[in-house]
Amino acid sequence: LFRGFITAAPKETDMEFRVGTAELRIPEGFKGVLVKNLYLSCDPFLRSRMREFYNSYIPPFTPGSVVEGFGISRVVETNDEGFRPGDLVSGLTGWEEYTLITSTDRLRKIQVDEKIPLSHHLGLLGQSQLNHARMPGFTAYAGFYEVCSPKKGERVFVSAACGAVGQLVGQLAKLHGCYVVGSAGTKQKVDLLKNKFGFDDAFNYKEEPDLAGAMKRYFPDGIDIYFDNVGGATLDAALLNMRIRGRIAACGMISQHSLSFKEGIHNLYMLIPKRIRMEGFIQSDYLHLFPQFLDRIGDLYKEERIVYMEDTHQGLESAPATLAGLFSGENVGKQVVCVCRE
Ligand code: NDP
């Protein structure tokens, strides 16, 4: 359960884990489905829903209510003719073992492919037909191809590069023929970026007191594309290193989520002399590309031309701490909670 609104980074104690019993059937008069939750997705946007005044596309949580997020579930009972018992679905569900879902437009049936792990439907192939869906794989795809307007040979910088979105952005950029450098917060992640995800180079931003200087080392001729997942000091330093007519895709600003006073950006004036295009985006603006994305990314994965890494925690009771860990960089890859494998 979500306990109440917060102003700092989420902590395990901001959520309450309760053990209880409930009848496992659809109550009379209820129209919808009863699902058993298998996997839950931990996403940065959940923190935004813990803020009372949140002027955005999705309302805040109600204190005392079950935490709601994306998940993969199996339909147990249904009186909605669009679903059958046994169907595997992805979409908005509760952080609980079983959830009654009225708004079945929140759910999408998963086309199971034995070559793709089921949990990848939360990260790599995250799918939902909701307008406010925020799924990492599609975010990387839409953000890189549509917002960054990449060209072969361009120099690409990705922050939070080892995360759910970042790892795919870097790999797509490599496949596009770009030079790619990522930043991340641990040595383990830096090694993964170079040795598993195929980035040309990577650095630990926490060990770089002069971020702008570090970027200059990796991009002596400047950055054409910055895929920004973090905002704050990293964005400020990137602005100084952008090339003329560079593009910044403002995907997320996780460094700012938990600050009551957002950090100021000092180098925004660089947009003018360098004619930089900086564009914020929400992946759901590009839902028309979703079928194409599923085919292309699914094929790339099955052909082993891309890899996708998940960080899976076992058990519903691990979910609060797992979500909190996103904000201190504990996740190595897409953060998933496995509630039950069946
Ligand atoms: P990640 O899997 O990348 O997890 C978050 C990572 O952010 C952490 O692992 C940590 O990695 C890094 N981080 C946490 N706090 C800070 C900080 N203060 N400063 C710098 N880095 C920090 O998450 P996602 O891939 O799911 O999301 C990445 C970004 O994309 C988020 O900002 C999210 O809000 C945004 N997003 C945007 C969407 C859109 O449609 N525009 C859709 C989905 C996500 P590290 O070790 O590198 O510090």
UniProtKB/TrEMBL annotation:
Which InterPro entries does this chain map to?
Answer: ADH-like_C, ADH_N_2, ER, GroES-like_sf, MDR_fam, NAD(P)-bd_dom_sf
Question: Pfam families, alphabetically?
Answer: ADH_N_2 (PF16884), ADH_zinc_N (PF00107)
Start and end residues of each Enoyl reductase (ER) domain: 33-337
What molecular functions are annotated in GO for this chain? Answer: oxidoreductase activity, acting on the CH-CH group of donors, NAD or NADP as acceptor
Which of UniProt's keywords are assigned here?
Oxidoreductase
Subunit relationships: Homodimer.
Kindly provide the name given to this protein in its UniProt entry. Answer: Enoyl reductase (ER) domain-containing protein
